[in-house]
Amino acid sequence: MLKKFFDLFKTKTSQEAKKTDALNSGEVAAFYNNNTDKFLEVYGDVIQAFRTSNVYDYLDYTIQNAELKDGQKILDAGCGVGGPALYFASKLNVEVEGLTISELQYNKANATQISKSLVGKTNFTLGDYHLMDEIYGHNVFDRVIFLESFGHSNNKPLLIEKALKVIRPGGVLYIKDLFRREHPNTEDGKRIDRIVEEINKAYCYHVADLHEVLATLRRLNFIVLFVKTPDVKVGEFEHLTISNNFQELFDIAKIISWEDYVFPVDFYEIKAMKPPFDTSQQKHLYFLNRPEVVGDAKK
Questions:
Q1: Does the model's pTM come out above 0.90?
Q2: Which helix (H) or strand (E) holds 250?
């Protein structure tokens, strides 16, 4: 009887989790269907807050740090209107899949890939990235990248699990996003929490917790290659001017006063590798990012 109760509770909990994710995805879709044109007016086709003054310099930086290379199959999860995906495909001999929950963004991305003659090198799909394994299958991609789209998920452990399924052994998960700052003291901590909640509400976001993300990556046996602030020279950094202009122009998360403002987030990039061996069978192995170890692991 007790076992039946716990099985029933587990089933209900799972159903509620799926219901919550579906609701969140619908809210994100509606947000971008309603606001994408506003973003395009200010941000252009690369809707990212942390950027260089010439945003394509930052995309080149992404190519370098995510190690995007010729011959790869890449998933841009939460691809927006396809700006980064189309840029990567124009610079490299790669196949880039873009996945967006917004029908408006999906239509714009498809129109742009036709105008840039990139059909075949890029492909865009309308769908929920929490379902990426159902959409694409398992062990498909050399890279899965989240470029300030990761925060729209309200179930990040689930999202990372889905990414693990679609990444090929030896492939890489790359996340660039904002993460809630630690509280330096009680008063500043209260301000940080308040401002983060305002961001979440305004942008249909769930600013990530770095501890949760790293714990999930480690639990799933990802090899964490680095966690760092993007290495952008001060003179090239855009200093969030575009984001402030957007807030002022459209009154979304507008900052009323700087006197009570504490910068609430850290921008990090995280790079993690799916082990190139079966961790359930070869538990004695620990893979480091060295070619000779890859060779040994395949034996």
A1: no
A2: helix 241-250
